[in-house]
Specification:
two-stranded antiparallel ribbon, mainly alpha, single chain, 169 residues
C-alpha cells in the first residue's frame, strides 16, 4: 500500500508558515525573477552574469571599493563577488590598485572597457525598469520606494536587535 502525501489544509494554522504571505520569501522570488529577466538584456550581448553586472554597476557608482565592500553594498556572497571580480578582471573590465593608505588592501575600478559596458547596459536596465513600473502611478512608485527604504531600515534594526545591539548605540 502506497503512503499518501499530505496536502496543505485549506485553512492553515495561524502560526503556520504561509510562503505566499512570508515577506522574505516573496521578496526573494520577486528579486530572482526580476534579476533573471533583466539579465536576458545583457547576458547574451555582453557575456555578463548577474553578479558581474552588479559589480560593474556598484563600481560605476562607487569607484575604489574593495571586493569586500562590493559584497557588503550588494548583499552578495563574498565568494560570488570574488569570482565575478576575477572574471571581470580577466576580461579587462576591471582594474585593481593598491590602496594609498593601506598597502594590504586593493581597490577596484572599472577599466575603459568596463565603463563602456556600463554606458551600454545602464540605459537598457533603465528601460526595463520603466516597462516594469509603467503600470504604476507616480504616487505608487513613490510609495513603493518609500516602503523599500523603510524595510531596509527595519531590516538593519532587526539585525542589530538579533545581535544584541541597538540602532542607537
Amino acid at each position: 500500500m502506497a503512503a499518501s502525501i499530505p496536502t496543505p489544509s485549506a485553512t492553515p494554522a495561524a502560526d503556520a508558515l504561509q510562503l505566499e504571505r512570508f515577506l522574505p520569501y516573496r521578496l526573494s522570488v520577486l528579486s530572482n525573477r526580476l534579476s533573471t529577466a533583466i539579465a536576458q538584456v545583457y547576458s547574451q550581448r555582453f557575456g555578463l552574469a548577474i553578479t558581474e553586472w552588479r559589480v560593474i554597476a556598484v563600481l560605476e557608482r562607487f569607484p575604489g571599493l574593495s571586493a569586500n565592500e562590493v559584497a557588503q553594498r550588494t548583499a552578495m556572497d563574498k565568494v560570488a563577488v570574488s569570482r565575478a571580480v576575477s572574471r571581470l578582471f580577466e576580461a579587462g573590465r576591471l582594474e585593481r590598485e593598491i590602496h594609498d593608505d593601506d598597502r594590504r588592501r586593493s581597490v577596484l575600478r572599472l577599466s575603459a572597457e568596463g565603463q563602456r559596458i556600463h554606458r551600454e547596459v545602464a540605459p537598457l536596465a533603465l528601460a526595463f525598469e520603466q516597462r516594469l513600473l509603467r503600470g504604476m502611478s507616480d504616487g505608487e512608485r513613490d510609495l513603493l520606494f518609500g516602503l523599500l527604504d523603510r524595510l531596509d531600515a527595519l531590516e538593519v534594526e532587526a539585525e542589530l536587535d538579533a545581535a544584541g545591539g541597538s540602532p542607537t548605540g
